[in-house]
Amino acid sequence: MAATIQFFLPPTGGKSLLGRSGGVGASMTDWDAVVVGAGAAGLMTAIHAAERGRRVLLLEKGRKPGVKILMSGGTRCNITHDCDNRGIIEAFGPNGKFLHSALAAFGVRDAIAFFEGEGVATKVEDTGKIFPVSDRALDVLNALLRRLERSGATLATSEPVREIVARPEGGFHLTTAVREVTTPHVVVTTGGRSYPAAARRATATPSPPSSATRSYRPGPRWCH
Ligand SMILES: Cc1cc2nc3c(=O)[nH]c(=O)nc-3n(C[C@H](O)[C@H](O)[C@H](O)COP(=O)(O)OP(=O)(O)OC[C@H]3O[C@@H](n4cnc5c(N)ncnc54)[C@H](O)[C@@H]3O)c2cc1C
């Protein structure tokens, strides 16, 4: 029996604002990977996968990507902290161990270099927090969107993913508000329900699996 993720979503149709390729009815071979949710995590995932030569489709439920980035750091966006990777892990507390591999792949200095490389000058404040010199979270988001565009990934907004099914023969089948997509790799970056203002504008949380499906727990098996 296939494992399924269903999403709680309003029954409104989505509008696809596709980039260079794909479209309603696009076939499974069009995308090497589909990333669900264009927040900070989804944008970075899509950028890095596309820069490695993957054909990436990034699906966003809301009309705009990166909404939560705009409200982060009191609209200034605290990009990272002036410390080494270990400092981040220690500051996280007892559960920080899970951050080791992520920070080894893309650490504090990489994050600063990434944004500086996109023209976002950064500053360290007395608290150790690192912000854009402009104090504008919008500059951080725009840097991500510029890089996304250069990477060749395709962003489709107003296109909520309603269901993801793991196919017995391999890969995944996704149903969005406007099309069906089959792809070998899916990364779910739909964030959490952490903040009402963000949730009102753009969010969705995977529903519990129906009784007809295998149980779903967010984890690496969805991030192939
Ligand atoms: C007020 C506030 C201030 C913050 N300040 C900072 C800060 O200064 N520095 C910092 O590092 N962090 C800060 N954070 C935390 C940071 O904003 C979040 O950790 C980060 O933005 C989460 O990114 P994400 O990509 O995981 O999730 P999200 O930003 O939530 O993105 C998930 C995306 O998935 C989309 N989505 C959901 N369901 C579906 C679906 N079914 N189909 C398609 N798309 C879907 C949503 O619309 C959304 O765009 C702050 C958070 C808040 C709320």
Please supply descriptive tags for the structure shown above.
19% strand; 2 domains; binds flavin-adenine dinucleotide; FAD/NAD(P)-binding domain; disordered C terminus; alpha/beta
What order do the helices and strands come in, and which of them pair?
Layout: E1 4-6, E2 33-36, H1 40-51, E3 56-59, H2 67-71, E4 80-81, H3 85-92, H4 99-105, H5 108-117, E5 122-124, E6 129-132, H6 137-151, E7 154-156, E8 161-166, E9 172-176, E10 180-183, E11 185-188, H7 196-201
Helix pairs in contact: 1-6
Bound molecules: flavin-adenine dinucleotide (FAD).
Would you kindly provide a written description of the structure presented here, covering whatever features stand out?
By secondary structure, the chain is α/β, with parallel strands linked by helices. Helices cover 28% and strands 19% of the residues. The chain folds into two domains: 4-68 and 139-222, FAD/NAD(P)-binding domain; 78-135, no CATH class. The longest helix has 15 residues, at 137-151. It starts with a strand and ends in a 23-residue tail after the last helix. The structure holds flavin-adenine dinucleotide. Flavin-adenine dinucleotide binds at residues 7, 9, 36-42, 59-62, 67-69, 71-73, 77-78, 160-161, 189-191, 194-195, 198, 202-204. Residues 193-218 have a biased composition (Low complexity). Residues 193-224 are annotated as: Disordered. InterPro entries: BaiN-like, FAD/NAD-bd_sf, RsdA/BaiN/AoA(So)_Rossmann.
